Amino acid sequence: MHNTEKRMGSTIYIGFVFLLMYAPLFYLMFYSFNAGGDMTNFSGFTFEHYQALFEDTRLMTFILNTFIVALLSALIATIIGTLGAIAIYYYRSNRNRQAILNLNSVLMVTPDVMMGASFLLMFSFLLKFEFGFTTVLLSHIAFNVPIVVLMVLPRLYEMNPSMITAAQDLGANQNQILSRIILPSIKSGVLAGYFMAFTYSLDDFAVTFFITGNGFSTLSVEVYSRARTGVSLEINALSTLMFLLALLLVFGYYSLRVGEQRRAALRVRQARGGK
Fold it and tell me: In a designed cystine with 74, which of 33, 53, 198, 211 is the match (CB 3.0 to 4.6 A)?
């Protein structure tokens, strides 16, 4: 009886938390179909705000910019972060390895405003870059690399080191070990790192706000500038589509993880059956 009450209490608490988080989203999504021009009275069902969204060439340009930066920065950060995680894994000194991980974690918890201001100073006075696509891309790569490292490193520690030793005994070189043993073993961590980096880049505002310029901007900065004059239902429609995209990405990543776990379980059963 006591356990049943605890489970019921946990269910109610979790449901309440999810209600607080998702109620504003569903409220916003509901009014994206409102034929009226505000979010006070629902006067009828319409798709005109979605039509207006796709007819807004300025906003479409910023959406394209956002996805280009997110895809490129996530890809480059995944490559750099994966190689960095492998380098940390092979680091012989535990003290130095821990120091590097601590520095990596500091970048994760650094406030976005502070990071954006530091990039602003670096590109303005040290590198003297012209603000635009390049500065935004480099900044997104920089704050995505630590995320990838933290996603990949646990997969490396889960890897069976005897496979690497056996490959070395059989004469495999470093490139063969990397491509045939290490990367296949940490594939799920690499994919997770890419998805996380893509998501962080997609919705970043604070860092991008500091280093955008010359007509180049991203969706979050544009939405902020429009919201200061009042949120239109066109933004509601955009937010609805972005939410559905996020759900699709989560479902895709979950499907990949489930498929990988099933294949791993199948290999274990086959190995036991072979014995």
Answer: 198
**Distance between the two ends of the chain, CA-based, in angstroms?**
45
- The letter for the amino acid at 143 is F
- Residues forming beta bridges with residue 213, ordered by sequence position: 216
What is the rounded distance in angstroms from the CA atom of residue 255 to the CA atom of residue 253?
5
Domain containing 135 — which CATH number? 1.10.3720.10
Query: Can you tell me the distance from the alpha carbon of 124 to that of 131, in angstroms, rounded to the nearest whole number?
Result: 8
Residue 231, pLDDT score: 67
For the chain, which ranges sit under pLDDT 70? 1-3, 5, 230-231, 271, 273-275
Does the CA dihedral 120-123-129-133 come out positive or negative? negative
**Cβ within 8 Å of residue 102, ≥6 positions away:** none
pLDDT number for residue 246: 82
What's the number of CA atoms in the CB half-sphere (13 Å) around residue 91? 17
Cα Rg of the chain, angstroms: 23
Widest CA span in the chain: 74
Residue 143's pLDDT is 92
3-state secondary structure of 213: strand
Per the CB < 8 A criterion, the answer to whether 151 and 196 are in contact is: yes
* Mean pLDDT of the residues in the chain: 85
Q: Which residues pair with 216 in a beta bridge?
A: 213
Buried b / exposed e over 181-196, threshold 16 CB at 10 Å, is bbeebbebbbbbbbbb
What range does the domain containing 146 cover? 57-274
